[in-house]
From TrEMBL:
PROSITE patterns: ABC_TM1F, ABC_TRANSPORTER_1, ABC_TRANSPORTER_2. This is ABC transporter ATP-binding protein. One of its GO terms (molecular function) is ATPase-coupled lipid transmembrane transporter activity. GO terms for biological process: cell redox homeostasis; glutathione transmembrane transport. The lineage of its organism: Bacteria, Bacillati, Bacillota, Bacilli, Bacillales. It is found in: Cell membrane. The chain crosses the membrane at residues 53-72, 129-150, 156-179, 249-267, 273-300. Pfam families: ABC_membrane, ABC_tran. Keywords: ATP-binding, Cell membrane, Membrane, Nucleotide-binding, Transmembrane, Transmembrane helix, Transport. GO terms for cellular component: plasma membrane. SUPFAM superfamilies: ABC transporter transmembrane region, P-loop containing nucleoside triphosphate hydrolases.
Length: 568
């Protein structure tokens, strides 16, 4: 039950709708019982040709009860679904508030398709928690207990039969099926996540799959995931139908028992025969709600698994109670001391025992082979991930106690992969600073050699209509518009030719003259202007110094530069 604690808290925020749902449900259930009992009594009474006014009273009661039943059922449906939708909305918001601080590190642990299945599918599954798990047992118990109490005024023996039927259909059989259902441990949610993942990868990688002629294999995997999901759904449906059929069968047996007991009691003179039809109709009506309990174990286990899958994501990390808002008005100083970080699914540290000092206003380049840990260090500086050990300080304040937004507000960032939204060039530039006028946007585009773009030019989803170089220059333009005092550039010009790269860097370094700048690059050309160069290999710093000092040392950096010159 601990998986459903959070859901219960969300549900209890809608106490008014919960109470109203139970009240309307109870009225609708009792109105149905009284309606059919009055109908049964009317049939028996009419056979004895009573005075007309007697029949008129019973007929009027039947009509009144039918109206009460209809209106109360409508009220129950309206209030219960309103409460459920409100709960789902609150649940999504609460989940997102807990999930947002974990991004983007959460993508290191979960595939995007699986995350999508949990956020959408598992939340949708929890809508049944109130409608199918909490609400039906309460209303069913109230209606049954009231009906049994009403029946005792006519026949104690038949009231006992109804009680036994209630215990069987509402408690014993659902409990047996609950144990059985837990043993089956249906994997519908897991199969749905697998299918969602395969669909996501097929859509995102469609072009590459086409080029490498692997589309058929991927489609086959998608079909297998789909078939597996359908089989799990079919298994769940068969179990549901079997549970409902068995519960309905027990209900019919109870009705036969009531008929037999009634006939026996009439024969002995312990029951007036005019009430037999009424008691049978009561039995038939009250057990109409019993099938809802047949699917109770399925919905309960489904809700429990959905909640467990959903909140296993956000329970992995404790969110700090309070973090400081750091105002960075001047170029920050960054210090790393004995920093080590290992990704969750990896055994080898991405960076290990790193000591770095970036003075205020300095220009630092991180170089090294792919996988040496350069981009990981940048993620640590942005607090996108937190070190497993060691300490990072920014302007003398420990970064672990600083709100992420404070750092992001001061940082002009260009990542290796930058996202571009569907819209216009103007829309994507204004992400950095929505107060900039069109004239300044045009000037910035000229600085990055994109003067052929118009601000109203369309940008497709993920920038599909832009070349790699155009994406990088547009990302650089966004960084230049941001106006922060910390520049973090991760391979910002890898797709540019040497001439364009030099022009772009000239504008960047001119604008960042007094700022702290960090450049991650595979290219070693143009690093002479950097205050320090940090050389990394296999997650460790192997050399540090200026361009001249490292060349004079003739170490790792010297060999990298020599190899680059030979290749060029």
């Amino acid at each position: 039950m601990k998986e459903l604690t959070f859901v219960m808290r969300m549900m209890m925020k809608e106490k008014k709708d919960i109470v109203l749902s139970i009240v309307f449900g109870f009225i609708a259930g009792m109105a149905a019982v009284l309606l059919f009992s009055a109908s049964g009594y009317l049939i028996s009474k009419a056979a004895f040709a009573p005075p007309f006014y007697t029949l008129m009273l019973v007929i009027a009661s039947v009509k009144l009860l039918s109206f009460v039943r209809a209106f109360s059922r409508y009220g129950e449906r309206y209030v219960s679904h309103r409460g459920t939708f409100t709960m789902l909305s609150q649940l999504r918001m609460a989940f997102y508030e807990k999930l947002e601080p974990l991004a983007p590190g959460i993508f290191h642990k979960y595939r995007s398709g699986d995350l999508l299945a949990r956020i959408v599918g598992d939340v949708e599954s929890l809508q049944n928690f109130f409608l199918r798990v909490v609400y039906p047992p309460v209303v069913l118990a109230l209606v049954f207990m009231s009906t049994i109490f009403f029946t005792t005024f006519y026949s104690f023996q038949i009231a006992v039969i109804l009680l036994i039927g209630f215990l069987l259909t509402a408690i014993v059989i659902p409990a047996i099926f609950a144990v059985h259902q837990r043993a089956i441990d249906s994997e519908v949610r897991i199969k749905r996540a697998s299918l969602s993942t395969e669909v996501t990868e097929l859509l995102y990688g469609f072009r590459d799959l086409k080029i490498y002629q692997q589309l058929d294999d991927k489609e086959q995997k998608l079909l297998q995931a789909s078939e597996s999901y359908i089989k799990e759904q079919d298994k769940e449906e068969r179990t549901t139908l079997f549970n409902q059929s068995l519960n309905q069968f027990i209900s019919l047996l109870v009705m036969v028992a009531v008929l037999a007991a009634g006939a026996y009691l009439i024969g002995r003179g312990e029951l007036d025969g005019i009430f037999l039809a009424m008691l049978i109709m009561i039995t038939l009506t009250v057990f109409e709600e019993a099938p809802a309990m047949a699917v109770f174990p399925i919905h309960f286990n489904d809700s429990r698994r959905a909640a467990k899958r959903l909140f296993s994501i956000i329970d992995q990390k404790e969110t700090p109670v309070h973090k400081e808002v750091l105002v960075i008005d001047e170029a920050p100083e960054i210090q790393m001391e004995d920093v080590t970080f290992t990704f969750a699914t990896e055994e080898r540290p991405a960076v290990e025992d790193v000591h770095v000092h970036l003075p205020s206003g300095s220009k630092t380049a991180f170089v090294g082979a792919s996988g040496s840990g350069k981009s990981t260090l940048m993620q640590l500086m942005l607090q996108l991930i937190t070190p497993n050990q060691g300490k990072i300080t920014i302007s003398g304040t420990e970064m672990a106690s600083v709100q992420q937004e404070s750092i992001w507000k001061a940082a002009n960032v260009v990542l290796q992969e930058n996202h571009f939204f569907y819209g216009t060039i103007r829309d994507n530039l204004l992400l950095a600073n929505d107060t900039v006028a069109d004239a300044e946007l045009q000037v910035t585009l000229r600085k990055v050699q994109l003067e052929h773009f118009h601000l109203d030019d369309r940008v497709y989803e993920r920038g599909e209509n832009l070349s790699g170089g155009e994406k990088q220059r547009l990302a650089m333009a966004r960084a230049m518009l941001k106006g922060g005092k910390l520049w973090l550039l991760d391979e910002p010009t890898s797709s540019l030719d040497a001439v364009t790269e030099q022009i772009v860097y000239e504008h960047v370094f001119r604008q960042a003259a007094d700022d702290t700048l960090v450049l991650i690059s595979h290219r070693l050309a143009g690093l002479e202007k950097m205050d320090q160069i940090i050389v990394m290999d296999e997650g460790k710093i192997v050399e540090t110094g200026t361009f001249a000092a490292l060349m004079e040392k003739q170490g790792y950096f010297y060999e990298m530069k020599k190899l680059e010159n030979n290749l060029l």
